[in-house]
Amino acid sequence: MTGIKLENVSKSYGNTEVIHEMDLEINAGERVVFLGPSGCGKSTTLRMIAGLESITSGKLYLDGEDVTNLESGKRDIAMVFQNYALYPNMTVKDNITFALKANKVEKKEIERRLHKALEMLDLTQYQDRLPKDLSGGQRQRVALARAIVKRSKYFLLDEPLSNLDVTLRQSARNQLIDIHDEYHQTFIYVTHDQVEAMTLGHRIVLMNKGKIQMVGTPEEVYNQPKNVFTASFIGTPKMNLQPVSWRDNHLLIGSQELELNHDWLQYLNDFSEKDYIIGIRPEHISISKEPSENSIHAVVKMTENLGPNYAVYVETKSTEWVVISSIRDWEKGDTAHIHFDVNKIHLFNKTTEENIGYPNK
Asked: What is the pLDDT confidence band of residue 2, given thresholds at 50, 70 and 90?
């Protein structure tokens, strides 16, 4: 059965529509990440699912039941927010168990859930401390513990790790996966961080300007982006995107020709369009001092140290590209030759910016 279903859901504030006719199905027990830039509507969508925001039009179903107008407290949902919102005058233990006591859960069951959560999140030694005596990472774990002891079917998280440093965020992501593996809730996580999305999600829902741009596994979103927005948002350094023309069985990049393989030739000849946007990830372009068959002449603009490798920025007469190189062997102004792995290119309709697809797929 579908865990969560949004059917033609829209949200408006006055005359401003912030969510546009959203259709989405999330399977029971699935980990789904809402990803997108600030202001794209991902938190608003999460809050509509939780019942904290009303739905302007459309329907929301939980396990097949229409809950569009059901109050939040009856939706069997646990939430964790960016702001931990702990009770400052309560100990860690009391913060975690407050909702259970309010709902008159049996004392022995409260103790069992408490100790399980304290152990899972390494909080046992802090259970008698007040929030002011905890670090940010510890407070975040208390907020997670408070949510997981509810044992709700739906676990909704709105950028809960954004206040943590890089090391703590990595550790917390691992803890979230452990929590899901333990309880198998239907799990929705909101973030603008693509690393979190790629790490946590069974599927990613990529949003922009109140609309879903693509829904897919991390591998699908990275390797087969549905449109230019998806291609540009996912990946660091981001995908190279440049206008090209299809003429006489060659792609023209400015005045230079790129020859494609037989499969692409056959595929493109079925289209009437002649102008496209080509996309290729920096790791799928090689760079050399000497020209080779099907290489493109360029000039080096700058080199950026990425740690394990280097990003080399080059330009032709009309385009700019970033290439991943394993060695720092380039200076500004050097002549270079770049070579595309034509099996890894993406082509997008220049007008609609939608991916035209791939040969043999």
From this structure: low
Contact, 24 vs 205, CB < 8 A?
yes
What is the reported pTM? 0.92
DSSP letter assigned to residue 240: E
Task: For residue 246, report the phi and psi dihedrals to the nearest 5 degrees.
Answer: -105, 110
**Which distant-in-sequence residues (6+ apart) come within 8 Å of 312 by Cβ?**
287, 300, 302, 303, 304, 322, 323, 324, 325, 330, 336
Separation of alpha carbons 203 and 191, rounded Å: 13
| Chain segment 225-254, per-residue pLDDT in tens | 999 999 999 999 999 999 999 998 889 998
**Residue keyed to tokens 């459309």:** 58
Question: Where residue 154 falls among pLDDT bands split at 50, 70, 90?
Answer: very high
Phi, psi of 358, deg, nearest 5: -135, 150
Residues composing the chain: 361
AA letter at 158: D
- Residues 231, 239 contacting (CB under 8 angstroms): yes
Angstrom distance (rounded) from CA 183 to CA 186: 9
Contact assessment for residue 148 and residue 142, using Cβ atoms and an 8 Å cutoff: no
